[in-house]
Specification:
heterodimer; A: 408 residues; alpha+beta; 4-stranded antiparallel sheet; 14 helices; B: 219 residues; 4 helices; 29% helix; globular; Mediator_Med20 (chain B); activator (chain B)
Chain lengths: 408, 219
Amino acid sequence: MQTLQQSQILHNSADAPNNQSESDDAPPKQVAQAMERLNQAARVIADIRLGADRILEAMFVASQPRHTDTPLQLFIREDASMRQHLQDLRLIGKKLEESGVLTESLRARSNSWGLHMPLVCPDGAVVAYAWKRQLAGQAGASAVDRTRLALKAFTDQKRRFFPHIDDGLKMEPRSKKTRASHSLLENGREEPVDYKTLLDIQSRLEKLVPNVKVSTYGRLDWLKRANSLPGSSSDDPTEASNPIFQSSSKMRSGLQTEVVDKVAVIELLFPSVFRAVVSLNPAGSVDPDAVAFFSPDEGGSYLHARGISVYHVYKHITEHAATALQYFLGSGTGTALYFLLLWICTFESLFSKPCSKCGRLLAMDKKSALILPPLHRPYQELPLAVKTGEVSLDDYEAYHASCSQDDS
Amino acid sequence: MPVKWVLYWQPNQGSTVSSQILNEATQCVESINGVKEGRWKAALNYYRPILREQANQAEFPRDFLGISLADQPSKYYFIIRSQRIVLEADSSIQLIMEKLQSYKSKVALYIEGFQFELGDFRLRVGKVVPTHSENVRGIVMEVEYLPISSIEKARKVMEEFLDMWHEALSKRSLPGKFVNIDLNFAEFGLTDSYTPQHTAVRYALVMAQMIATVQAVRG
């Protein structure tokens, strides 16, 4: 009985303000009304759900042979209240449609004051002030984000439960990974070396260097990721705060052709050691044009291939890397990216490998009067070593700038 | 957060610690191209529970250390070494304890000194003095390597830096040396990623050592 009364009140309250012309109200009031109606709709929907439960319960009880009378009464009562609820819902829905909430009849309203009614986006999000641009951005962004998350969840689950289904690049059998002794020799014999495609380079690198995390991004995506990284001043250690961007490389298997076209930034991360950023020009090619090193704890919009780290050690490596990059670009066609990435991986031992000349890890750099680890790794011999298959990353030499034979 | 090691001055048998050691250490930092950035202050307190009934005494630790760190001005850290507990609290906790009359500060110490920048390293050297006294109880030194926050990855770098530091300091023929205590952070529930809690635990150990040294010298 209570529910019938409630719905009558609903009728009256819904009718009364409608008699005055709604379009005379100021936008905030319209918005408030619309939000109120949406809330009412939600309450009615909840009532409908409860009513459905009660009806099902009544039917269940009716199926028991004992109670004969009560279920029937229950049934009649619930039937009446359900019909009323559905009626109310239709009413609210009509009002929402008229005021432009559920449909895009925005242009039909002549005096919308430039503000639009709350809109229910295609993916279910309710936007209170649906400014057109904001709406497009929000609906689009939320839809894209949700799709990404869904795709990531799907690929993760697929990998977990159906590992035998070939996923393309990432499906390395475990034995191969542990066997990767950092030497190119065996790979040199397995297949002809191909540096033409980004995916190929990436997969070769990941085979050789098990600790590196290689990810590729479009330019805008990289900017978002750089900004979302915890900065050096923040205490928050949760680097995985935005899982969407970390999944970019995993998404490759599903969106191969699309994404590769726009890849403009490659990130090499050695956790706790360094993060290197390489930019490709033009986007989608395998031609690097800049590289920079940063601390794994740095974050911010200055983190890009032409940015400079706040720490001296990474600043100096970046300078050294620029000359190495020029050398690789000059030494061959189309091979520069692979050599560059491989050379970057030799810095995994930055804080552990002592200088091959003086035997110490730290030394006072004469030019800058700073105490630094060995920042120089020779690059001239690398292309030749790769071709003959004699590269061993474990034994790669390192020198202090002052101990190094070449000047840079 | 960058990895930090905390060292304390261990005087040779028969000698005492004084402000002169601090001056020498400061000069030594500047001799290896350290640039003075400013003053350094930290405060330590030993708290004891105020018990209404003696019967409860066994439930409470005899005393524990509270420390405020210069890096984290809005926080206060507690360490109970015997239980391997380290806790981060808001700095207002001191006021709360006072109002509640739950714990009382039995010993209050200050660390006063200077902060230096050496490239990617940050050094702090300071003397430990009780409040209202110029009596130097000890000297502490903090060494931070700013670029990385993994304790294991930074280990070799820190060790070699300290070798360089010892070498530079030995030229001054001082009666003692700076000592670093290695400890197992895992016992305190801390990980390889450095945090202020790590620093708090280090200080608890350093202070314990320092007090033991002072007591040994005295008698």
